[in-house]
């Protein structure tokens, strides 16, 4: 069996919530290995830096594993816990040497880190069933296709954001040549990928992971210089994200209705999720709220979401099943939109009562400039 770790995907999962120690350790270990094997020529990263990377990954793995398994009132020695978990005693010894003595040599660390990865594979990864993170060796072709597709999509998404996120928003309906090239590149990849419909899901996942990583990093201070962005830095960043991606997604939705259905489903899933990380989750959920409210209420999206088979009744029902400050505000926005009369007739009272119980102010009736992500667009 061969482990295949998508580092950016794991990083995005970590931002959404705490990761199991085994997954986080696998991530650190594989990153350390990649820093080593890609170090050609060997002068790129010093031997000391490689040893430090290996020691950090290895020590976090051993310490986190043994500390997390402490259950008795009286602390049990690391050697006893290692024996219980069938972890080699040499792991405990090497951890002690790395922390309290001299850094072990690269030869010793490379051997130890490979044994640690083998232990994780045997004791954790063989007991889970997630094809997005590990697969059998005889599926190596699908693995290469999966990784190649995601890498290509990630490069396209990153390139487009870098080109457009720091410029002033375009007028509604405008799309520049670079944006058209982005659409063509994405469609070409989706059409020629052997993964079929799964390639569309890959694009949605890559795009949202990209947004998540940006909203939780220092990049969100590089907002577009536009006078209409009068909110917080994060509100401006949300507007910047949608200014550069809204025309792209509209064109893709015309060509690939399935993409819009998948995007809407994943965004509402994130909006209704309970995130333990307050700051990054708040920013990301604000981004999901802005996108969904735009898709379901903006005039230029009305025809697209109907052609894609999306239903305002269904999404409002989902919102009210998992009420929080964002889902209830989204339900209220959709309900108050003129082309969602059935939604208002069916859910107006329930939305009102839910908002009162949560003490949430309505976003309905606000102008486009007041709602994150709606810069330059009229809601209804």
Major sheet: arrangement of strands: 1-2
Rounded to an integer, what's the Rg over CA atoms?
Answer: 24 Å
Structural class: mainly alpha
Low-pLDDT regions: 130-141, 218-233, 364-380
What does the overall shape look like?
A: globular
Can you give the helix content as a percent range? Answer: 55-70%
SSE pattern:
EHHHHHHEHHHHHHHHHH
Mean pLDDT: 75
Largest sheet: 2 strands, antiparallel
Assembly type of the chains comes to single chain
Task: Work out the strand percent.
Answer: under 5%
**Helix tally?**
16
Record field, number of beta strands: 2
Distance separating the two termini: 53 Å
What's the layout of helices and strands?
Blueprint: E1 2-3, H1 7-16, H2 21-37, H3 47-68, H4 78-84, H5 89-100, H6 106-123, E2 134-135, H7 140-164, H8 177-192, H9 197-215, H10 233-255, H11 257-272, H12 278-297, H13 299-307, H14 312-321, H15 325-335, H16 341-358
Antiparallel strand pairs: 1-2
Helix pairs in contact: 1-9, 2-3, 2-6, 3-5, 3-6, 7-8, 7-9, 8-10, 9-11, 10-11, 10-12, 11-12, 12-13, 12-15, 14-15, 14-16, 15-16
Description:
It is built from 16 helices and two strands. It has a two-stranded antiparallel ribbon. The longest helix is centred in the middle third of the chain and has 25 residues, at 140-164. It is globular and about 70 Å long. With 380 residues, the protein is mainly alpha-helical.
